[in-house]
Amino acid sequence: MATIRDLAKRAGVSPATVSRILNYDSTLSVSDETRNRVFQAAEDLNYTKHLSKKYQRFSGKTAAIVLWCDPEEELNDLYYYSIRLGITERLTELGLKHELLYAGANWEELDKYAGVIVIGSDQYSAGQMSILRQLPGPVVFVDSNHLEDGFPSVYSDFRSAVEEIVDHFIQTGRTKIGMLAGDLSDHYDKDNLTDFRFRNFKRYAQAKDLYQPDWIIVGAFTSETGYEAIKLAWPKLAEKPNCLLVANDAMAIGALKAFRELHVRVPEDVSMISFNDTTVAQFANPALSSVKVETNEMGKRAAEVLLNRLEQPDRLPYALQLLTKLILRQSSIN
């Protein structure tokens, strides 16, 4: 656990100066550069004792947490549920009230909130994005990078994760690489899916001359649609992939069931790696190799970014990228 002395050493100031800056001592005369250096040291060393005092001025105010799904869909997807829990837990610790706005909520009243945290990315329409740009308070995106649009963002490094999976398949002798990707639309463009994992996969597979459009199978991020997609598409493939990247654990569970019914062995016939490393991954049969994503941490970081923007509204927007980790289990040839 970092101490005031650790922060002082990193920032190049005295412990007394650190204490007074973190407690917002109005009688202290230091430059903005020094203040920012101290706060950056606190962030780098994960020092959080100061946060509740720092944001006391926002007690009584309310932030909105915007979700693209309804409550039932959220509970069925542990990925987004975990992100949301991280946000609400951290906002509560920091003394800021919050309200949840699910699909169908009235966005015209978003300007009444002190700030907004938006979970997701491509699920939102151009009209909704326009509303977000016009809000007077800060807007933070989590699980997507919208820094180019001027929004502070917290997201995970899925690009490197996808590349690591493809490289793992190749290193284990599997080069017929397909993907069970996700899209929420019933009228999706199979060559231009909203699933950012697909976009990363397509780019990297094409660079290695391994991309086969026929080996892209699409579900809607649920176990049921993963099962249905594999059950329908697999028998129709003249040549079949020998490894499969799956957009999330839920669809991978459905795919496992479909493969059992089709008498396709995992991993002997098809090596599978999915995303999110939720609890179900390790208890699947076979246990799923999966990319661990720090969903709860993403949520907590997004809450801290929002509070930071409330405290420093003129600060330039920035993005935080969290690393992922590939957990290898029995569903893949390792």
From TrEMBL:
InterPro entries in UniProt: HTH_LacI (IPR000843), LacI/GalR-like_sensor (IPR046335), Lambda_DNA-bd_dom_sf (IPR010982), Peripla_BP_I (IPR028082)
Species assigned in the record: Lactobacillus porci
Citing just one GO molecular function, the answer is: DNA-binding transcription factor activity
Q: Which Pfam families match?
A: LacI (PF00356), Peripla_BP_3 (PF13377)
Coiled coil (UniProt feature): none
Name the keywords, alphabetized. Answer: DNA-binding, Transcription, Transcription regulation
The HTH lacI-type domain extends over 2-53
Domain of life of the organism in this record?
Answer: Bacteria
Q: Which PROSITE patterns match?
A: HTH_LACI_1, HTH_LACI_2
Q: What is this protein called?
A: LacI family DNA-binding transcriptional regulator
